[in-house]
């Protein structure tokens, strides 16, 4: 008989002696469950307060028209959802969101991986270069974007530098295509350091004997990279893809400070459009509907990536 | 266990009651001394000091008000912050307002002031200038006191003009002459010609300081019909487009030039911006240049009103009447051009102005106010501004189709005007 079973028997026996058949409320199992819940309570409270409640409220707001000046709410049902189909600006906004997010993801992951591969080699000053590439990450996004705003002006620093080599630079932020390129590059240069560090860590986890064996078998650099390195860092590749896509879909400050969504609607991404509708135009109902659309995009993309991980990820630790 | 259940029940009930109270947002008058809060967008220490001194003097005679706070909000986010406060049930009792006034009045979010001001001893309601109260009135009732009425004027850097060998006659100055002199300054000195301050190819409503001179308007008097595509507006935008892309009299999009830093020959800005003059160059200040439609004046306004959501409406209303009485209006006039006829003389305005002379203030403020039109203002100002800007972005290209762009502006904003 184990000690626990013995205790239970003793406990029941003494209860019978007292004439009360009721077992004690705080059993070991209940204590364990409570302890577990207490440990996760802060995180659970955070998720409840700052994620689930706001999402619930957003769903409620999306079903109402809210006059923010008087506080009066009128239930309109699915009116805001049907308005999505007739919003003349929404197609341009979704296109800008796709171009921005796609551009940021492709450039960020490619550049991050390239820099990580280069800096993974042993050479003098490698630490300095790693610090240099990572340092923009810790700079305030607004300060970073403001400085880039000055540099990208027609008479700004970038065109000044181009002029010294005889190139007349474009008016970067005043034309749709160059404005989008500018916000993508500004975002990538600032955030590529995070992916670089993650890739560096993954690259350093690849066993060196695999490279040695491949070289002995006569594999070239390209073959080694595609057949050994990429498959072995694929979990990190998946992680960075998810982080970068979600980050790109949430990019707000860069757009607000650098272009204000213009020229025309060329850089109005969905999250900025949500802000405009809800907080500038005071259309909380439609803004909430757009926010829920953005949330569903993020969830769908994340789900899709997790589903595709079997194809992408060749091993999981 | 029963105790635990009781405790949980009590906790849930407390939370529900607390939430209900927090969300109810009723504007019922509360008992006891009131604490008033007024949102402003200034962070100027002297202005806040004056407001606080007026607040302190009021409290000394009014024990029913225990505290008056002037909450300074950043100007760039003022409308958003104020709206969020109102929507969140944390509305101030009184608020400064600019282009949000139409929305607030249309939503019945402001308390009518006329009866209270007329009934206040010595307030002198008839002293208010009719042209400056129209913007804040509906059906004969005033909803916000227009504490600041700053006309737009032409600032001239006479040093730069002399350097470029240019002379102007302010008495007969036209927009074409300004553009010609500006282009010459740009060509000879590399500095900018004329700058419409705060426009920056985004805030198109300040272009009313130009198009009004061409006889154009953004929309009809009743605010229902867009008039952007009118022939007068086409002429005005042709003039601006030519200045930006052909004569280069105006800095092109994406180029910054600060008149007050000595980077431009002319700027159109409100008279209150004279405080930015540092004395680093000689300047002239004149009424707006004459346009093809003749002489005109444009005004930028700010008002202060009491919100209907205030829990201390009567005290807030009483304080507003005190804040804007003739004596305090004179004190406020050192910072903000007043709406009172009795205070609108060049000599009185100059008494508190270290930068501008009595003659300058007489010609650019006092003489302009009676006939001045205000900058375009409408309900849903942010939506109109954004949709108008999005359409107007196509204007700021060298090969822009001006009539087509102006028609697209109307297509973009007409549904909002019609609401």
Explain how this protein is built.
The complex is a heterodimer of chains A (317) and B (419). With 317 residues, chain A is mainly α. Chain A has one domain (88-312): Orthogonal Bundle (MetI-like fold), CATH 1.10.3720. Chain A contains 15 helices and two strands. Chain A has a two-stranded antiparallel sheet. In chain A, a hairpin with a 4-residue loop joins strand 1 (64-67) and strand 2 (72-75). The longest helix of chain A is centred in the first third of the chain and has 35 residues, at 28-62. The model of chain A has no long low-confidence stretch (mean pLDDT 88). Chain B is of the alpha/beta class. Chain B has a domain at 33-150 and 300-371: D-Maltodextrin-Binding Protein, domain 2 (3-Layer(aba) Sandwich), CATH 3.40.190.10. Helix content of chain B is 40%, strand content 15%. Chain B contains 16 helices and eleven strands. Chain B has helices at 2-24, 45-61, 78-87, 101-106, 114-119, 130-133, 158-163, 175-189, 208-211, 231-245, 313-323, 326-332, 346-351, 358-366, 381-392, 402-417, and strands at 34-40, 65-72, 94-97, 137-138, 141-142, 145-157, 192-196, 264-270, 283-286, 298-306, 373-374. In chain B, strands 1, 2, 3, 6, 7, 8, 9, 10 and 11 form a nine-stranded mixed β-sheet that branches. In chain B, helix 2 links the parallel strand 1 and strand 2. In chain B, helix 15 packs antiparallel against helix 16. The longest helix of chain B has 23 residues, at 2-24. The termini of chain B are far apart. In chain B, 45% of the residues are buried.
């Amino acid at each position: 008989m184990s000690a626990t079973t013995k205790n239970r028997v003793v406990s029941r026996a003494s209860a019978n002696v007292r004439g009360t058949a009721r077992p004690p409320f705080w059993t070991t199992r209940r204590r364990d469950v409570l302890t577990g819940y207490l440990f996760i309570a802060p995180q659970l409270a955070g998720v409840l307060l700052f994620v689930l409640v706001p999402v619930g409220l957003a769903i409620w707001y999306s079903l109402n028209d809210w006059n923010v000046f008087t506080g009066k709410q009128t239930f309109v049902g699915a009116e805001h959802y049907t308005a999505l189909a007739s919003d003349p600006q929404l197609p341009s906004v979704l296109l800008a969101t796709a171009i921005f997010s796609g551009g940021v993801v492709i450039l960020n992951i490619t550049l991050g991986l390239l820099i990580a591969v280069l800096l993974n080699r042993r050479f003098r000053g490698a630490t300095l270069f790693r610090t240099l590439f990572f340092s923009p990450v810790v700079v305030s996004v607004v300060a970073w974007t403001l400085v880039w705003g000055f540099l990208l002006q027609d008479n700004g620093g970038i065109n000044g530098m181009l002029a010294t080599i005889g190139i007349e630079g474009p008016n970067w932020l005043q034309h749709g295509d160059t404005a989008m390129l500018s916000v993508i590059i500004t975002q990538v240069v600032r955030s590529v350091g995070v992916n670089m560090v993650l890739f560096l860590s993954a690259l350093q986890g690849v066993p060196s004997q695999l490279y040695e064996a491949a070289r002995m078998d006569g594999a070239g650099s390209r073959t080694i990279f595609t057949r050994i390195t990429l498959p072995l860092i694929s979990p990190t590749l998946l992680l960075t893809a998810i982080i970068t896509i979600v980050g790109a879909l949430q990019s707000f400050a860069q757009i607000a400070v650098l272009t204000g969504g213009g020229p025309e609607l060329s850089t109005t991404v969905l999250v900025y459009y949500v802000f405009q509708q809800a907080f500038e135009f005071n259309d909380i109902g439609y803004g909430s509907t757009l926010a829920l659309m953005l949330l569903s995009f993020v969830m769908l993309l994340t789900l899709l990536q997790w589903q595709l991980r079997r194809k992408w990820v060749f091993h999981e630790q | 266990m029963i105790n635990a259940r009781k405790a949980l029940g009590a906790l849930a009930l407390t939370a529900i009651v607390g939430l209900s109270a927090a969300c109810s947002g009723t504007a019922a008058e509360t008992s006891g001394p009131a604490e008033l809060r007024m949102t402003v967008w200034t962070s100027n220490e002297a202005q806040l000091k004056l407001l606080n001194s007026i607040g302190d003097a009021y409290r000394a005679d009014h024990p029913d008000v225990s505290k008056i706070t002037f909450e300074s909000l950043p100007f760039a986010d003022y409308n958003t912050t104020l709206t969020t406060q109102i929507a969140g049930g944390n509305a101030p009792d009184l608020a400064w307002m600019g282009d949000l006034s139409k929305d607030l009045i249309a939503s019945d979010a402001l308390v009518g002031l006329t009866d209270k001001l007329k009934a206040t001893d010595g307030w002198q309601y008839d002293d208010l200038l009719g042209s400056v109260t129209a913007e804040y009135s509906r059906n004969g009732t005033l909803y916000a006191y227009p504490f600041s009425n700053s006309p737009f004027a032409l600032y001239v850097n006479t040093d730069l003009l002399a350097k470029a060998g240019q002379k102007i006659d302010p008495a007969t100055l036209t927009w074409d002459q300004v553009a010609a002199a500006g282009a010459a300054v740009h060509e000879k000195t590399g500095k900018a010609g004329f700058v419409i301050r705060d426009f920056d190819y985004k805030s198109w409503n300040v272009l009313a300081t130009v198009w009004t001179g061409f006889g154009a308007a953004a929309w009809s008097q009743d605010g229902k019909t867009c008039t952007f595509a009118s022939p007068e507006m086409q002429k005005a935008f042709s003039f601006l487009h030519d200045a930006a892309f052909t004569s280069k009299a105006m800095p092109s999009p994406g180029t910054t030039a600060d008149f007050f830093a000595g980077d431009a020959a002319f700027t159109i800005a409100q008279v209150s911006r004279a405080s930015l003059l540092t004395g680093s160059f000689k300047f002239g200040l004149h009424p707006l240049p004459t346009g093809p439609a003749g002489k005109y004046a444009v005004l930028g306004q700010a008002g202060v009103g009491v919100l209907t959501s205030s829990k201390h409406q009567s005290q807030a209303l009483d304080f507003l009447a005190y804040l804007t009485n003739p004596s305090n209006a004179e004190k406020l006039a050192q910072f903000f051009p007043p709406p009172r006829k009795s205070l609108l003389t060049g000599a009185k305005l100059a008494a508190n102005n270290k930068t501008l002379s009595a003659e300058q203030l007489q010609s650019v403020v006092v003489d302009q106010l009676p006939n001045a039109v205000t900058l375009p203002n409408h309900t849903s100002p942010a939506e109109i501004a954004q949709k108008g800007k999005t359409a107007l972005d196509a204007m700021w290209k060298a090969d822009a189709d001006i009539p087509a762009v102006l028609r697209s502006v109307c297509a973009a904003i007409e549904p909002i005007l019609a609401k």
